[in-house]
Description:
Elements: H1 2-31, H2 36-39, H3 43-52, E1 57-58, E2 64-65, H4 73-85, H5 90-104, H6 110-117, H7 121-133, H8 139-193, H9 204-224, H10 228-247
Antiparallel strand pairs: 1-2
Amino acid sequence: MQADSLSQNLGAVITAIGALGTAAFGLLEAIKPGIKSINLIGFDGIRQTVSSLTPLERNAEGVLGAPKNALPQANVLKTLESNWVNGNDLGSQKAIAKSLIKLHLSAGNAPALAQATNVDGKILTEVAQSIAAGNALDQPHSDTYSRFDLIVTAMLDECYQCSDDIYRNWMRALAAVIAVILALAGGYILGASTPVSGGAVHDFGWWFREMATALIVGLLATPLAPIAKDLSTALATAVNTMQLVKKV
């Protein structure tokens, strides 16, 4: 009976701590739209990679600019930034990024793109010229263009996955901060509203213990949030299993 009570109490504590973590994530989601810097976490890696794959070219007057029939680099980055902030599917974001990069390929910037992707610059330039003229690619040029496409895909996969990991880790860290603040606030309110016998005030040691407990609860909240229910159920199952074993 005592084991059942302990299991239920511990399970309730785990569930409550997990609920605090869920509340912290929810509060973070609520404030994200008003703070642009949070939404852009992780995008720097995408910006650097895409910038290296959308180099400018010099026109007849020697002025650097975007190739014809292609979005300027600044507009490409704004498009990808909007998709990132809106949380679009990563596969869709990578596909859009690759399409915009391939549209940026021209004879003027092919050497820079070839250097960024480690393919033959002379052949990639000829590929760009053939595409612009609407001519079919022969086997060597088609092979080089396929390698270029594959390397661009790999570079985008890497930068988007790394950026997504950075974003998720930062979200967990920010949610943990919010959970700690909420737990400390809850502990303070609970302590302030708890009557003390004899009219005495809470001493420093009491407040320290309460705030330390609240801090631990806050730090555990976000890791426990996704698994709180499963962990509570598993714990109750383990206790019941041990009770049955002892009866044998």
